Amino acid sequence: MTSQSLKLALNVYSHNRSAMFGTIVLAIVILMALIGPWIAPHDPAQQFSDDILTPPLWHSAGDFKYFLGTDDLGRDLLSRILFGARLSLKLTLIVVFIAALIGILLGALTAFLSATVRSLVMRMMDLLLSLPSLLLAIAIVAVIGPGLPNAIYAVIIVLIPQFVRVTQSAISEELSKDYVMAAKLDGANRTRLLFNHVWPNIVPAIIVQLTFSFSTALLDIAALGFLGLGAQPPMAEWGTMLSESRAFIQFAPWTMTLPGLAIFLTVLSINLVGDGLRDALDPRLNR
Amino acid sequence: MPLLSAKLIRKSYKVSNNPFKQRYLEVLKGISFTLNPGQTLAVVGESGSGKSTLARILVGAEQPDKGQLFFQDKDILQDKHFPWYQNMRMIFQNPATSLNPRATILQTLEEPLINAGQLNHHQRLERIAEVLELVGLRSEHAQRYPHTFSGGQRQRIAIARALMLQPKVIVADEPVSALDVSVQAQIINLLIELQEKLELAYVFISHDLGLVQHFSDKVLVMHNGQQEEYGRVQEVFSQPQSSYTIELLKASAGYKRKS
Amino acid sequence: MSLLQIENLSVNFNTDEGTICAVDNVKLSIDNGQVIGVIGESGSGKSVMALAIAGLLSPAAQMKADLFTLDGHDLNRMSDTDRQKMITDNISIIFQEPTSSLNPSLTIGYQLDETIRFHEGGNKSQRKERAYQLLDSVGIHDAKRRYKEYPHQLSGGLNQRVMIAIALACQPKLLIADEPTTALDVTVQSQILDLLLKLKEEHNMALMLITHDFSILSETTQKVHVMYAGQVVESGRTYNLLSQPYHPYTKALLESVPHFGMRYKKGRRLFNLPGSTPPMRNLPVGCYLGPRCPYANKQCVKAPELTGIKGRRVRCHFPLIEEEQS
After folding, report:
1. Where in the sequence is the domain holding A249, given as residue range(s)?
2. Strands across the sheet with B24-35, in order?
3. pLDDT tens for residues C95-111?
């Protein structure tokens, strides 16, 4: 990205209301995750056996001690959600980073392959993409066994094809453009062509894919946790919290809605940011 | 001695990928011409006539199946190490797509110089400023991005890029047809001026016979990959031999002669 | 009596960067069976004007005209639906890109039939007969085969003929052709122009030819309007205007294109205007051509009015008329 087009993109982005909303929500979530351990009123694993299923503060039976109430084991929900944010964001970041690294490299490599090998690789990626990401993740965990590390591997594997696909299609789209042909006629070799000329033009597409992968990863990790295949209790993970409180949805709805709301808001804000980025980085706006 | 001469250039493309039923489309069926320094050869034909394929072959972007291409009496199709980009350059039809949208003019113009590897950074900047001035732009323009220029200015930049390495031949593929009428003349004038100054040879691909007549010494008329007619512009246009050329000439002059 | 009479037609678009005036007080009249030309570069407002006349502007555009009569009816005093009906019954328009103006997933026949059903009705076989007849009249002689084909199976020239057939289906009194030949090959261009003129005679239509190419207009039209930055800068009889342009912009358009059939000395420079067409959202003060005009002086910071000179109308403080006398 160049400073000038960055300025333009920022201008478009800051005029996009939903993207700004997403940014603010996401910023709050990230801030919470960062300072969570210091502002959390309790240890997330500590069980206050006298105060099980305390409703949140705004409820008539609420208690000032537990701002968002407690769960069935008497653990403070606010603290668990804060620690959960930390955990979820950390995991997602790791997962997306590794998946993006592998996926982008693979996608870029296809540009150097012969047409036959390339189409073979891409058909394999299509095969992986044709399965719903969650289903694939479940299948992988089923094979390698449940648990948080395995869930992470599974989600990484699920995300890789998306990056390969996006990188490959962006590169092949750019390669067919006149300016690439012009650069080729300037004497640029294939590596130079790819890194100096094509790469800056596909960065926006990859940034957008990154944000969407971020939300997919967050959701999949939570879903695996919910299914008991990912993070295991008593870990404060949003998906796991949902599954633990499933039995109490009738009489203690907050135990389920509050972690659910946290997942919903985070994913929504990431998607809004992604949409905003896609609009702002669209090169057609570079009049 | 001609600068560039082509002998019976042939090219066909595979049109079906079925390994049992391979079909080929012949896009160039034996094209020959010669071009002297400082001269302009116009290539005239309709869409699908093969003129763009010929252009790509002339700048080394594609290899013909058969035929010879002599540049300064050397068959450059046989020479694997011939530096095409230092001798024959191309100007594309649409400057909006032929310039990298995310590269400054400086980066774009520096590319051929870096690849040729003869100049240091300071010398490159000097050369860029010199060429920008040659095409009627200022050296400050180098810091800007393509989208901040008008269509005519962008085509000037594309011309500057083609001139960076002091080539002998410039292949211009419909260089003005994407531009506004009142800007076309500026670019044509610039091309004429550069030809006079630098003794450039042009291969000028166009469908506009008025422009061809104004601009060229020789003309090559193509139709479905076939070389219909080749010769001096005045002769071909005053005494056309092939029926296709006659039809083309009639169509271009039609609305002057009729009624 | 004129078929179409328009006075002070303006079309504005509201954008983030303020109001853009794409068409600026254009006055225009076309008689029955007349051929007029509108010439201008991209962004001159000529296409927006055509869309305004054909009632096809997007809802974002604001159009107003002091006078807008069609075939003697005052369209300004009609309800929206009546006006729309009046326009669709009498005006047809064809565009530059025939292949993208046709729906790629419907057959030629279906698209033609749709228009015939809307304007004439009739049962299926009557409509089919009419479609064959229309295709035949635009020079598609294997109509029965083409009727069943899709646009991508036809060449650009044939698709343009189909567009013309669809335009003729409503028996328009005015056919607007917006750059009808620009996307086509040279040899096909003249065939399409011939066809348009032939049909104009046969159907006694008026024809409005919009183009950027003077060579198309010179022998086909009786009157020409030259547009620049949304304004008409010169209008008059085609022959007079081409042989002696009064407006510097007309002169530039004429002389910047080398004409086929004329002999030029090798290396002769073409007349040209410096710079490029100003963007609509950033027009110069006064005369819009001012900054590019070789004849401009101080007075040109005042916007010139369209004034009548020798049977022509010119928007210039210094029409090139003086040169003639000296």
Report:
1. 13-285
2. B24-35, B4-14, B66-71, B74-75
3. 888 878 888 889 988 98
